[in-house]
Design a protein that fits this description.
single chain, 10 helices
Length: 194
């Protein structure tokens, strides 16, 4: 159990340089647009993507290190159970690998037409953008308020939030998520109430 306001050990120790490296990788990818649009330059684009940080292991590490700087609430919601930020990372890494393989194959075969290249490239950019957007996702607390959310968040609203009172209010209002079973001292889906 992680105390409120504390980062899980797996996500602690972030360095701004790691986020900067991720943002630099995004810039490099965005800069590939001209090469993606020109089949004569697909080999050059494949060459860039076949070197770190765009190969699988270094790219995975880049995302893992950059994730240490995600807001606490994003880390806990998305990272505590291997949730959405991990999925976005994996999708970005896989899409980058697929784009590199496609570009390499097409350039070796001297193929000059492919609808797949644009699709892969668009997917790569969207997954990187989706991850970067997590740094400024200030709406997450609004989306997940109540029902015991503050047991997992370090948001300001949770500093003054009384989870036990919320549970009892939900019970009194007939809410099912936090409903107490007759004679029970715990919520139906976890968390103690005394």
């Amino acid at each position: 159990q992680v105390a409120l306001g504390k980062k899980p050990a797996a996500l602690s120790g972030g360095d701004e340089k790691d986020k900067d490296k991720l943002l630099k990788a995004v810039e490099t990818l965005e800069g590939l647009r001209g090469k993606i649009n020109d089949p004569k330059q697909w080999g050059d684009a494949a060459e860039i993507l076949s070197k770190p940080p765009f190969t699988k292991a270094p790219l995975t590490k880049l995302f893992d290190n950059a994730a240490k700087l995600l807001p606490d609430n994003i880390q806990k919601i998305y990272g505590g159970d291997g949730g959405a930020w991990v999925a976005v990372k994996n999708e970005a890494v896989d899409a980058t690998d697929a784009l590199a393989a496609e570009l390499k194959y097409l350039s070796k075969q001297k193929i000059t037409e492919s609808e797949d290249v644009e699709g892969y490239y668009t997917l790569v950019l969207s997954k990187f953008s989706e991850f970067v957007a997590l740094y400024s996702n200030s709406d997450i607390n609004k989306q997940l308020k109540g029902v015991g959310f503050c047991a997992y968040s370090s948001s300001e609203k949770c500093d003054k939030f009384d989870d036990d009172a919320d549970v009892k209010a939900q019970k009194d209002a007939g809410g099912i998520y936090n409903q107490l079973r007759p004679g029970a001292t715990e919520r139906q889906f976890g968390g103690g109430v005394k």
